[in-house]
Amino acid sequence: MGFNIVEKILKEHLVVGEIKKGNEIGIRIDQTLTQDSTGTMAYLQFEALDVDKVKTKKSVAYIDHNMLQTGPENADDHKYIQTVAKKHGIYFSKPGNGICHQVHLERFGVPGQTLLGSDSHTPTGGGIGMLAIGAGGLDVAVAMGGGEYYIKYPQIVKVNLIGKLQPWVTAKDIILELLRCLSVKGGVNKVFEYVGEGVKTLSVPERATITNMGAELGATTSIFPSDEVTREFLKAQDREENFVELKADEDAQYDEAVEINLSELEPLIACPHSPDNVVKVSELKGVKVDQVTIGSCTNSSYVDMMKVSNILDGKTVNENVSLVIGPGSKQVLNMIAENGALSKMIAAGARIIESGCGPCIGMGQSPANNAVSLRTINRNFEGRCGTVSAGVYLVSPETAAISALTGYITDPREFIEAIEVEMPKKFLINDNLVVKPAENSEEIEVVRGPNIKPFPLAESLKDIVEGKILIKVEDNITTDHIMPSNAKLLPFRSNIPHLSNYCLAPCNPEFSKRAKKNNGGFILAGENYGQGSSREHAALVPLYLGVKAVFAKSFARIHMANLVNNGIIPLVFEDCNDYNDIDEFDEIVINDAISSVENGKIVIENKTKGKIYSMKLEVSQRQKNMIIKGGLINSIKNK
Ligand code: MIC
Ligand code: SF4
C-alpha cells in the first residue's frame, strides 16, 4: 500500500510513538518560527530551559504584530527578542521585513521539512509542501531546544481539486467554500492534503492562502504537493537548491475525501462573526461598505498586490470608504514600489501601511461604530478589529478592491474583464533585514525591558481540587475572547499580571475580579472552546488567576495543549446535557484528583446542586503526567 504526503513526512520525522490513528506521536522539528506577540513569552520559556543554542535546522524570530509602538513596551520587547535570538542561534527578522508567514514562505520554507510556529497560521508553510503546525510558545521553545513535538496521529483528509478557477474566482474562495461545507470545527485533529488536477493551476502563494486559512477549520495543518510550480517559485526566490519533489503514491489511502470543482466556484464572503458563516458575494450585493483592508498573512503576496493595483489603476476609492493596504513583506512592497504598482494604489487614494499584521489583529485602523469592514484577512471574530459593533466580512483581494471603488459589496465578475498577473520569474532578493545569529554567543547580552514580568508556573496537582464556576460561556469561544488582543493590550504580552485584568472580558468584564476574589475556580464552556489564535496567554492568564480546570463540551487543539502545558485540566463532558445543569457560582469539587487524572475518568461533584457528572480527560499518558507534575516546564525540570 502506498503513502500520502503527510504519512511520508510523519514517518520520516517520527521520534516517539507508533504510527496508528489517534495515537500520540512525537515528531522531530526541522524549523521553528515565532512572532513578537507570542515570541517574548516563548523566549522567556526557552531561557528557562537552559539550552545554549537552538538545535533546529533553522529558527527565525519575526517582529510583525506589535509594531504600533505607542509607548516603549513594544520596542523594549523587540530589543529583548533581537538579543535573545542573536545569543541562541536564531535568525531575527526586523520590524519592516514583513509578516512571519509571508516572509517564511518566500525566504526560508523547505518542502518536506517540519515547521513549528508560535502562531496558529503557521500552516501557511503547507503551500510550499512543509508540514507546518501552529502551537503554543512553550511547545515551540521545547522544539528549539531539540525536543520533539507531540500530536495526535491525525485523520488525513484528501481534498481533490478538479477543474479550474473561473475569472475573478480566487484561492480565497476555495478555502471559504471548505469552511462553508465543514465549519470551524470541521478540521479538528485532521490534516488536509490537496491533490488533483486543480493543484497545478495554483501558484505557491495561492496554495498558501488556502493552507493559511485551514487554521480556521481547526485543522492540525494543511499541505500541498511540492511540484514544478513549487520549483519555479523557489527558483524565482533564488533558492532552487531547497526544492524536493513531494507527491502521494498512486495507491495512497486517506481517511476521508472531499472534492471541490474549481470551475463551479463563485466569489464567496464570510459574514460576521465567524469565518464559516459563508455566502456568495452576489447575495450581499449592494450592502454599503465603510472600510476595506487588504493584506495579512492570508492575502498579501506580490500577485495579490498587483491585482489590486491593476483594479485601482486610474480610479478613485469611493468617497465613503477608507481603503487600507498592507503589502505582506518588504520583498512585495519593494517590488511594487519599483514597478510603479504602489504609485497607482496611492493615486487611487489607498492608505498604505507598513508590512505587518496591523488591522488584522486590531493594531490600528479600527473601523467606526457599526461599520461594515471588508477584509482579506482570515478571522472575523467579534471585536477583533478593535470595534465591537463593527461587522467584519472576509473576502478575496479582488472583491475587496472592487468594492472599495463602488462603495458597496460588489461581485467582482460585474467588473471589467479579468486581470491576469503573471508570477514573477525572479523576485527581488534582499535579506538585509534578517540579522544572523552571533558566532560567539558569550559576548551577547540579553536586554530586558521593565515590561517583562515573570510568567506563572503551575503547581503539582492536589488530591482535592475545589472552587466555584467563575463563568459559563457558550460554543466556539475564541482565544480572542479569553485573552483579547488590541492596540492597548498587545504591548503587554510579556506582562501577565497586567493582562489578567482583561481575561474573558468580552464575555463578562467581571471575570477577572471574580477569579481574584474567589482565589480561582473553574470555567464552564460549550463546544470548540479556545478556537483561533495559538496565544498561550489564554492559558497563562487563567493559570495566574487560579483557574484549575475547564469543563467543556469540546476543545480546540492548540488551546487544549496549552492548558495541559500549564497544568490546567481540560475536562470534556461524557454527557453534554450536564452543561445545562451547571450554573455560575456553583461549588464544584474533584475528589481523588490525582488517581482520576491517571485513569482519565473524572467525576466532578456539584455541591450546590447535589449532583455528580462524569467527565473525560482526552489526553495522552505523557500529558496526564504533565498535569500531575504541574505543567510542561515542571515536568522537564523534574526529568
Ligand atoms: C492571530 O491571528 O490571532 C495571531 C495574533 O496571529 C495569533 C497569535 C497571537 O495571539 O499572538 C495566532 O494566530 O496564533
Ligand atoms: Fe498576523 Fe493576522 Fe496573520 Fe495572525 S492572522 S499572523 S495577526 S496577519
UniProtKB/TrEMBL annotation:
Stated family: Belongs to the aconitase/IPM isomerase family.
Pfam families: Aconitase, Aconitase_C
Swiss-Prot/TrEMBL cofactor(s): [4Fe-4S] cluster
NCBIfam families, alphabetized: acon_putative, PRK00402.1, PRK07229.1
Origin species: Clostridium aestuarii
Protein name (record): Aconitate hydratase
GO molecular-function terms, A-Z: aconitate hydratase activity
Entry keywords, A to Z: Iron, Iron-sulfur, Lyase, Metal-binding
Assembly notes: Monomer.
Domain Aconitase A/isopropylmalate dehydratase small subunit swivel: 515-574
Enzyme class: lyase
Enzyme Commission number(s): 4.2.1.3
Domain (Aconitase/3-isopropylmalate dehydratase large subunit alpha/beta/alpha) ranges: 7-407
